[in-house]
Amino acid sequence: MPNDVFTLTRDDYLSDEVWAAERARIFHRGWMLAGAGQRLQRGNRTVVELAGESVLLTRDLEGRLHAFANVCRHRGARLCEAHDTSSQGSLMCPYHAWTYALDGRLIATPHLDETEVDKSTLPLWQYHLREWQGLVFVSLHPEPPEFDQWLRDHAPEMLKFERFGLDQLQVVASTRCDIAANWKIVIENYQECLHCTRVHPELVDITPIYRTGWVTDHEREDGGVTVDRAKAGSPYRNPLPSLPGVSGADHTSYFGATVFANGFVDITDPSVVISTLYPDGPHRTVMTMDFLFHPDAINTPGFDPQPIIDFNVLVGNQDNAVCESVHRGVSSKAFEHGVLTPKDEYVIWFTQHYRNVMA
């Protein structure tokens, strides 16, 4: 095969101008994965950084989710700091103590009475939010694309996961890491397994097809790959109640999907891992991993999710190290673009999809 299928260019990975265009055309025009909604309990709020925009996520006392600009309506002060999570039950500005309910209503303005401030006209600025299968999606655009069609266009593999009842699961642990690499490098790494035998010996040991460099099994129509659960060292050896909808080969399979442009979903019974990318300019990506299990598994005597968590963190750290190496490599003046092979099929899909959306 001639080497005529190319990766993105040096500027695509490193340019501030490209990053500004990505914010306008990808992140702030469509929908972004904001994380697992199950992490946010009633009466709680948290902050996520969505491609340079600080967003407050709240779950009010009625259980409804909301997304707001992290900005006080008085003088524009930031209400909460990045990745700040609290069960305070309200939002108080640290500047002048203006206080908002978790549904965005302005409820207190110290030293100012109703003749001086009409609180009913000053709720927090609200963004569009959609919760799908327990995953929270936010759009910063005034008129976002219709969500169901957007999901079909940008994350079609996710539709196959509805049968696993992700919205019935609970988050038992979350991790956060900083990756000194462009967000597209992180996604491209996830999309191929030519690196797996060298970078992920533990993963290849329990997932035989990864020894071939293919990331999926083309002989299976369900998108899954076989996992050797009984292998010594496998974190999936201990039996636990299965995820909803698991049947037949599902129990010994791994399923993965990319949510364009900032997330991955990995399913290996009895666990689900939601990885959310928070790009922070061309040179840095923050990633969180939420580990979810069904309540039946959590309530099993002796339930211990730590082996599964440790295994996924290990694989994640291995990926992060090579992504940072790639980022340093594409920074070379010699690098114009790389080449893609047939086994990079999902990298090719991502590259073409990215170019189409950016156009």
Summed up, what is this model?
The protein is 24% helix and 27% strand. By secondary structure, the chain is α+β, with helices and mostly antiparallel strands.
Order of helices and strands: EHHEEEEEEEEEEHEHHHEEEEEHHEH
Q: Kindly report the name of the CATH homologous superfamily of the largest domain.
A: Naphthalene 1,2-dioxygenase Alpha Subunit, Chain A, domain 1
The CATH architecture of the largest domain is Alpha-Beta Complex
- By DSSP (H or I, 4+ residues per run), the number of helices equals 9
Task: Report the biggest beta sheet as strand number plus sense, adding barrel if it closes.
Answer: 7 strands, antiparallel
Strand line-up across the major sheet: 2-11-10-5-4-3-6
Q: State the share of residues found in helices, binned by percent.
A: 10-25%
Key attributes of the depicted protein:
single chain, 359 residues, alpha+beta, Naphthalene 1,2-dioxygenase Alpha Subunit, Chain A, domain 1, Rieske Iron-sulfur Protein, 2 domains, six-stranded antiparallel β-sheet
What does this structure look like?
With about 350 residues, this protein is α+β, with helices and mostly antiparallel strands. It has two domains: about 1-30 and about 150-359, Alpha-Beta Complex (Naphthalene 1,2-dioxygenase Alpha Subunit, Chain A, domain 1); about 30-145, Rieske Iron-sulfur Protein (3-layer Sandwich), CATH 2.102.10. Helix content is about 25%, strand content about 25%. The strands form four sheets. It has a seven-stranded antiparallel β-sheet with strand order 2-11-10-5-4-3-6, with no helix packed on it. The chain has a six-stranded antiparallel β-sheet with strand order 12-17-16-15-14-13. It has a three-stranded antiparallel β-sheet with strand order 7-8-9, with no helix packed on it. The longest helix is centred in the C-terminal third of the chain and has 25 residues, at about 305-330. The radius of gyration is 22 Å and the shape is globular. It starts with 5 loop residues before the first strand and ends with a helix.
